[in-house]
Amino acid sequence: APQGELPENWDLEGLENFLHSRFHMDFDAGEGEKQETLKHTLLRQIHEEYQRRHKMMAEEVREAFREQVSLAGAGAPLLIGGKSMGGRVASLLVDELADAGAVIGCACLGYPFHPPGKPEQLRTEHLAGLRTPTLILQGERDTFGPRSEVETYTLSPQIQLEWLPAGDHSFKPTVKSGLSEADNRDAACQAVDRFGRGLLGG
């Protein structure tokens, strides 16, 4: 397999050959220990590769925001924002761009407050001191930050938090709610429109 990539052949022999060629590892231990060594090594490799690609992707999104804002120039008032990681990156940039007079606000749809199942790994530090008006639209049962958790966080008074009823990270509601995903998406669009108009005094 090429440098940094995992093999497509996931049987034990294929993995052993990959690890031997990639890490010069020999497997002389018993079968059970061999299995555990392979499993942990591959899990670590997958985790490191995911972290590397995620960081690279976030940097690419950050630069894309800067480029698009620059292309827009000093014309009409500009909002930046995005879904999930895109919204998080926008929120990390918005004060910098607002200070330069390039944008007037930010809209985050489905903010990833923490990885699913890991509420202790918060991504909220910068949100407490945000100085630029920001709208966060969140599904009430979003596994990246459900209502029951998010309402306990310390967020900047510049942040306007709105909830999409029974919505998950994609805003899809439960069947019991009687709502559709389209209903919640329409509500999200209307909320962003109201937010933008409010910043313009409309």
Looking at this protein, list some descriptive labels.
single chain; 4-stranded parallel sheet; 5 helices; 202 residues; alpha/beta
Description:
With 202 residues, the chain is an alpha/beta fold. Helix content is 46%, strand content 11%. The protein is built from 5 helices and 4 strands, in the order ααβαββαβα. The chain has helices at residues 12-23, 31-72, 85-99, 147-150, 181-199; strands at 79-83, 105-109, 134-139, 159-164. It has a 4-stranded parallel β-sheet with strand order 1-2-3-4, with helices on both faces. Helix 4 links the parallel strand 3 (134-139) and strand 4. Helix 2 packs parallel to helix 3. It is globular, with a radius of gyration of 22 Å. 22% of the residues are buried. Mean pLDDT is 83; it is low at 1-10.
Indicate the structural class.
Answer: alpha/beta
* Quaternary assembly: single chain
Instruction: Give Rg in angstroms.
Output: 22 Å
The SSE order reads HHEHEEHEH
Strand content: 5-15%
Major sheet size, sense and barrel closure: 4 strands, parallel
End-to-end gap = 57 Å
Shape: globular
Q: Going across the biggest sheet, name each strand in turn.
A: 1-2-3-4
Helix content: 40-55%
Low-confidence segments, given as residue ranges, are: 1-10
Q: State mean pLDDT (0 to 100 scale).
A: 83
Number of beta strands:
4
Continuous helix count: 5
